[in-house]
Amino acid sequence: MRMLLVQPPQGTSFGLTRILTSEPLGLECVGGALRTRGHDASLIDLRVDSWESLERALDDPPRAVGITCAFTTDVLPVREVASFVKERWPELPVLVGGHHASLLPDDFIYPDSPVDAVAVGEGEFTTIEFAEALERGQAPEGVPGILTLRNRGNGFRSRPFTRELDELPRADRSLSAPYRRWYHHGLQPRSASLETSRGCPFDCNFCSVWVFYDRRAGRRSPSSLVREIETLEEQHVFFTDDIAFLNHDAYKELGERIAASGIEKMYACETRSDLVVRYRDLFRAWRRVGLTTIFLGVEKVDDAGLAEVRKRTKGGVNTNVEAIHILREEGITPMTTFITDPAWDEADFDRLEEFITRLRLPNASFTILTPLPGTELYARAHHPRLRLLRRDALRAPREAPPRALLRALRGALPPRAARHAPQLRHGPARGAARPRRQLLGDAQGLRRGEGGA
Q1: Could you give all domains of the chain from N- to C-terminal order, each with its CATH number?
Q2: How far is it, in rounded angstroms, from Cα 239 to Cα 191?
Q3: Which of 135, 296, 431, 441 is 20 to 30 A from residue 264's alpha carbon, by CA?
Q4: What is the value of pTM for the model shown?
Q5: Exposed, middle or buried by CB within 10 Å (0-12, 13-18, 19+), for 37?
Q6: Where in 19-161 does DSSP place strands (E)?
Q7: What is the number of other CB atoms lying within 10 angstroms of the CB of residue 287?
Q8: How far is Cα 45 from Cα 47, in angstroms, rounded to an integer?
Q9: Spatial separation of the C-alpha atoms in residues 314 and 316, rounded to whole Å
Q10: Mean pLDDT over residues 134-161, rounded?
Q11: Is 95 helix (H, G, I), strand (E, B) or coil?
Q12: How confident is the model at residue 200 (pLDDT cuts 50, 70, 90)?
C-alpha cells in the first residue's frame, strides 16, 4: 500500500521556525520504515511547497495519509491539512503522529474530527502495523500505539520505546529530495539533520521531552552513524539529539570513526553546560572533527533562576560561565539560549542584559516561559481559562477572535505576571486569507518547551 506523508505549514510567523527549516526527519524515518516492509511512501513538505502540490498528490489517492505534529503551533495547520484531505476523499484514513500529538491526542481525537487516529510515541513500527491492518481490512485500534475514538476510553495499548535505536529502520532521505536545498539551520546553507540519540534523563519543568521518553535516552551505535553520515550530500549536519554528548564513550568513538573515515563536514548540536565542563577533552577532539557550533541551554543568569526551572546544572551559573569560556577557547561558537519570565520587572531584564554584555554573547536567543502542553508547568497551572482556550479556540480557530484569545491567555496568568505581559498585546491583522496564522501569531507561538538542552 502507499501512504502520503505531510509536513504541515509552519504554525507561527516568528521564532526559531523562521530561522531554521530542518528536514522532516520524523517523516523520513516513518517513510523508510514503510519501505522496508514493501510499502510505498511519498512526502509533501508544506513549509516550502504549495497546497496545489498537495492537491495534485491527492489526485491519485494513497491508501492513507500521515501528518506530523511535533509542536503545539502545528495543531491548527495539521487540522487544516486533515480537513483538506477529507474534503477530497472523506473515507481516506488520516493518521497524526509526533511529539505534541502523542502528549495531547485529544487535540485530534474528538467527534467529527478530520483525524481518524493518532500514533502515540515512536512512529516507525506503529505506522507499519497501522498500514498492514488497513491492507488486511482490519480496524487499526488493535495496533499498539494507535489511539482512536473507539479505543480511547478502553482498549488502547501503548507501545514501549526502542532503547537500541539501531533496531529502527533508517530515514529515507530520498523522500525529501525535491526540497533538500531549502533545509537549513540558521545561516548554515543546506543543512542535514541526524539523530544520534533520543530522550533525556533530566526533568526541567519547562520541557516535555523527559515526559515523552520517561526520563530515558536511547542511542545509535557509532558505526551505524558513520555509515549514514557518509551518505549525506550536505556539508553541514545538525545533531537533533535532545542532549548531544550525553554519553562520553559513545561520542568519543563516533568522533574517532569520523576522523578515521576521512569525512569532512561541519557539525552543530544542542547540549548542557555541565557536559561541556565535564568533557572538555571530548569537545576539543570534536572541534578537530568539525564541530563548529553548540546551542547551549544557559536558561537563567543566577542559581535561583536555575532552581525555579529545575535545570539541575551541576555548579549552577558558574558552570554556565565556564562552559561558554571553554567553547570559545576550543574554537566552538556558543549559541546561548535564555528563558525570560512574564513576571519579570525591569530589574530582572537589566540583570539579563548585564550577563549577556559581560560575557559578550552576540548570539543569544530568548524564550518566554510558557506552560506548554506536556510540561510540568502546564500540569501545575491547569487553569480553567487555559482549558477553555484549548476547547474553544483550538477546536474552532476560524470563529475564535484573536483578542478574545489574548484575554484568555492574560487571565490564565497570575496578576503580577499579567501586568508584565506586553507580548500578549493584539497585533495588526495579517489578512483574512489565513486567519489561522493571525491567531497563532497573536498567541505568541505556543510550542514545545525549547530553551536549549
Answers
A1: 2-147 (3.40.50.280), 183-332+345-366 (3.20.20.70), 376-442 (no CATH)
A2: 10
A3: 296
A4: 0.83
A5: middle
A6: 20-21, 40-45, 64-68, 94-97, 117-119, 146-147
A7: 16
A8: 5
A9: 5
A10: 94
A11: strand
A12: very high
